[in-house]
Amino acid sequence: MTNAVLRIRLGRPDDAGAIAVLVRRVTRRWIVPDQPPEAGLALLSRQGAANQRRRMVEGHRFHLAWLGDTLVGVVAMRDDSHLTQLFVGTRYHGRGIARRLWQRAMTDAVRRAGTRRFTLNASRCAVPAYRRLGFVATGPERFSPNGVLTTPMLLECAPA
Fold first, then answer.
1. Range of the domain at 16
2. Which DSSP letter does residue 77 get?
3. How confident is the model at residue 146, as a pLDDT?
4. Which value, to the nearest 10 degrees, does the dihedral of the CA atoms of residues 73, 22, 85, 47 take?
5. CATH number at residue 34
6. 38 domain residue, yes or no
7. Distance CA 10, CA 59 (A)
């Protein structure tokens, strides 16, 4: 697979199973260790295929990164402005996949809705990656209503 070309395409409801496998794997490795045990388990339970499919049906835009037949990354956005998921498989870190996914999702939101302000709630381990993408923290690390420890972040783009 070393010669495979990275392809990014819109997610479809039938991709939900593959998305769930990737997202849960990355969550277990990187996010759950920093969470209270019950919050980590609840987070994993919300990442199943049925919930991924439901989000797509509700209008969340998913962009998927593939190397050959392997799903290596996913980005999802709600309302063309709030990043809800950005995951890259651990073995594919450091290859610029997250940046390419983010740029695709951001370009899509700007084109579709003219969005200039993007928000997200970052897990502790993801804050440095989001900073590299241009996001800034807008508040301290805090517990979300569902008990997950996150940092609110923002990226404002200059008008075109």
1. 6-115
2. E
3. 85
4. 160
5. 3.40.630.30
6. yes
7. 12
Report yes or no on 51 lying in a domain.
yes
pLDDT, residue 100, reads 97
The mean pLDDT value for 73-86 works out to: 97
C-beta of residue 83 within 8 angstroms of C-beta of residue 120: yes
119-155 burial: b if 16+ Cβ within 10 Å, else e: bbbbbeebbebbeebebeeeeeeeeeeeebbbbbbeb
Domain count, the chain: 1
User: Residue 83 falls within a domain, yes or no?
Assistant: yes
pLDDT tens profile 105-150: 999 999 999 999 999 999 999 999 999 999 999 999 999 888 899 9
Q: How far, in Å, CA of 107 to CA of 114, rounded?
A: 9
Length of the chain in terms of residues written: 160
- Phi, psi of 75, deg, nearest 5: -130, 140
Q: Number of helices (H) and strands (E), helices first, in the chain?
A: 5, 8
Flag whether 160 is in a domain: no
CB-based contacts of 64, cutoff 8 Å, min separation 6: 8, 9, 10, 11, 15, 19, 71, 73, 74
User: Do 101 and 8 contact (CB within 8 A), yes or no?
Assistant: yes
Give per-residue pLDDT as tens, 35-70: 998 999 999 999 999 999 999 999 999 999 999 999
What local confidence, expressed as pLDDT, does residue 98 receive? 97
